[in-house]
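Annotated sample (chain length 214).
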Amino acid sequence: MKPRVRHNSLDVFYQVLRKRGIGPGGHCAQDDEISRQFAGHYAVLVLDSSGFTCLTQDHGIIHFLSLIVDMRDQVVPIFQAHKALELWFEPDNIFGVFPLASDAVKAAIKAQKRMAELNDERIPPNRLEVCIGIGSGQLLYIPPRHIFGQEMNFACKLGEEVAGPRDILLTTAAYDEIKDNVTGLQTESCSINISNIRIDYHFIKPSASLRWLA
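Output written by the structure step:
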């Protein structure tokens, strides 16, 4: 699905929200308008770097930023080749919007493979590991760089707080999208409580899942 991009999309979104007012219900006309204009099924990928504090403390912020730029140069073409609708950067994060969970998962596996190959070749100060969380479902997407919904929240939690170096974590919704076609994809079911909210997710071992890309 291609996003409906307008130069004033965010302004329109905020105008409808102001017209709606606050409160959990009773504003169906505006809710329907927002859903009609901005709701759709998307997959979201949240990539975070690992080791910021140690790398910066030992080698300085400029060295760390050089690793971030190099990491972006490595993985962005991979994400673009797997149908990313939009990518954007915030500090050491990459956020990506994809049409389907399978697109995001394949991009994540290839990105982790590429980073692992580089890191295995490099001396420790020049290594940068990354963590990835993926969600998928009905979301509000207001290009550029704005996407809202539970699956976006869960993907951020998984990518930024739960995943470790070289991990790829999928929300249950994202996994359910691909579960009928997971031959060769090794996963493990897990759950965690964050801020009194239980998040069920699936852990992927990318090094053991390359056959799934075929």
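Annotation: The helical segments are 9-20, 28-38, 52-59, 61-81, 101-121, 150-162, 172-178.
Annotation: The chain has seven helices and eight strands.
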